[in-house]
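hey can u check if this looks right to u? its 400 residues, i copy pasted from the old doc so theres a chance i mangled smth
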Amino acid sequence: MKKLMTSAAVLALTLMSAQAQTRPAAPVTPSDYQFTIVKENPVTSIKNQNRSGTCWCFSALSFLESEVIKAKGLKDPALYPDFSEMYVVRRAYADRARKYVRMDGRMGFSVGSDFGDALEVAKKYGLIDQNSYSGLQYGYDLPVQGELDAVLRGYMDAVLKNPNRKLTNVWPKGLEGILDAYMGPVPETFTVNGVSYTTQSYRDAQGLNLDDYIGFTSFTHHPFYSSFAVEVADNWRGTPSWNVPLDEFMAIIDHAVNNGYTVAWGGDVSEAGFTRNGLGILVDTEVKATSGSDQERWVGKAEEKPVEKKAVREIKVTQENRQQWFDEKTSTDDHGMHLYGIAKDQNGVKYYLIKNSWGESGEYKGIWYMSEEFCKGKTLNIVVNKNAVPKEILKKLGLK
């Protein structure tokens, strides 16, 4: 998911319809909403990506942690896994750097990425627990990666210049040296609950089949029931997603949640209706980009005005306007989160429970309530367990 935006404040919402004009004008904070949980699946604790563009990794690993909980039937949160995000980020940095050189710099080189990256790292290199590898060797308790990102980019651009007209075979060692300095060397073995592991054996002990995870999207510029790599810069590995009609796309999400699975969610949060305080509502109003911490980039500063209830009349999403927003780039590749449940508000409007990676912020301590219309319109892609997909849809795709 992309992580660089220009600085500006999110605009307060304005009245958008005659129907809305009849509603009370008092500003509404999320506490004015009354949510009832319909279905909620287990997730691990809220994490904080802080000042790093690593939402793709936090959300993907949260998703995999829930997969472990389900696969092992874990009931005690004390036994829940806690995978190291920065280990996956480190491995992804190195893989991307090698491709960046092979592509002569004609691709993005940044920390932003997507779910396929995290899954590929887990398949290729394994996983490690947070206690064994924090990836934070530079004096902070939470990720602060601006300097590391700049140093890596400077180093890679120097390599790309190829001043000797022939690359040496040691530049990858220099890259690893930078990563060791900022993130720490990866231990060859580590111990979890008294058992010694390598990263590969620890992954294998989790009860996961990483080949079971498949991506979905819903756009009309590719044929339905075919797969393609969603055309966003951070999908640098070219991970494919299956393209299905919008009603089936939403049916996959609902079927997964209702059958005890969760969903890795990627999409656009640069909307005024995606608030700092835990709401995601698809209102029709102008949006400006924001800056600062990862949270402030998308939802603005804490002092900004909340969504007003009088303006919360949602757009009804169709396949056509969803495609239009993607084509005109008003639906962009902003953020990755973890969808794990379904709720309804006091008016019977359907929402999804979303675990974010901005710490225990907002009215719901790190959880967002995303309306069904927001999800329909602003989701770019999802990843689910193949076993969570309705069988009739798998059959259309030629999958078993």
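The CA atoms of residues 22 and 104 lie 59 Å apart.
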